[in-house]
Amino acid sequence: QKEVEQDPGPLSVPEGAIVSLNCTYSNSAFQYFMWYRQYSRKGPELLMYTYSSGNKEDGRFTAQVDKSSKYISLFIRDSQPSDSATYLCAMSSMNRDDKIIFGKGTRLHILP
Amino acid sequence: DSGVTQTPKHLITATGQRVTLRCSPRSGDLSVYWYQQSLDQGLQFLIQYYNGEERAKGNILERFSAQQFPDLHSELNLSSLELGDSALYFCASSTLAGGPSYEQYFGPGTRLTVT
């Protein structure tokens, strides 16, 4: 079983729709959960991070973590064509000798 | 623009050759991370340096090595290149000192093609 699983997509939704992106993981030591956005031919950029369980909201973006189910989600409200990108989940225990494990990313297309 | 710069943008080379990728972190960031991104494996952590010292190692092959210089720029050296080394190589930097950081700023990457 891979440490982090993420559906590669592509996921195509109409402009204005609510988008749900998800990842599952197997390592119960993970405490920090992140979402990165990567536009074509660019480096990833941090969208949001969450510590432990719960929800975090930032504008149109909401990150959810359910540690009991080892499941994290990113919701995008009122999706825009500019949201079209690859979204990578990432997680870590953040211990000194640990590393960040990234999902392979979900390609998202917002159709105008 | 993240403030992290990487050169070159593209590199095409033959199997068996050696290349050097260069990264300059954001001003003030002491930690540099190197990642490899391929369609098969996704984004894989290779190695981290903090203020000139190796801090953490990931899935880095023995043919690969890195260093961070006193001016904090870093170089990733890839030798005896194989076709499977073709990938995007990203550098990231952060302000945090020890271990991984949840807030990393990525450069634009170097696309390596081995023929």
How many beta-strand segments of chain A?
A: 11
Helix-strand topology string of chain A: EEEEEEEEEEE
- Overall form of chain A: globular
Number of helices of chain B: 0
Beta content of chain B comes to over 45%
Low-pLDDT segments, ≥5 res of chain A: none
Strand content of chain A: over 45%
Q: Helix count of chain A, per DSSP?
A: 0
| Global outline of chain B | globular
Whole-number average pLDDT of chain A? 92
* Helix proportion range of chain A: under 10%
Q: Order of helices and strands of chain B, N to C?
A: EEEEEEEEEEE
Mind explaining what this structure looks like?
The complex is a heterodimer of chains A (112) and B (115). Chain A has 112 residues and is an all-beta fold. Helix content of chain A is 0%, strand content 54%. Chain A is built from no helices and eleven strands. In chain A, the strands form two sheets. In chain A, strands 2, 4, 5, 9, 10 and 11 form a six-stranded mixed sheet that branches. In chain A, strand 4 and strand 5 form a beta hairpin. Chain A is globular, with a radius of gyration of 14 Å. Chain B has 115 residues and is mainly β. In chain B, the strands form two sheets. In chain B, strands 2, 4, 5, 6, 9, 10 and 11 form a seven-stranded mixed sheet that branches. Chain B has a four-stranded antiparallel sheet with strand order 1-3-8-7, with no helix packed on it. In chain B, a hairpin with a 2-residue loop joins strand 5 and strand 6. The radius of gyration of chain B is 13 Å and the shape is globular. The N and C termini of chain B lie far apart (31 Å). The mean pLDDT of chain B is 92.
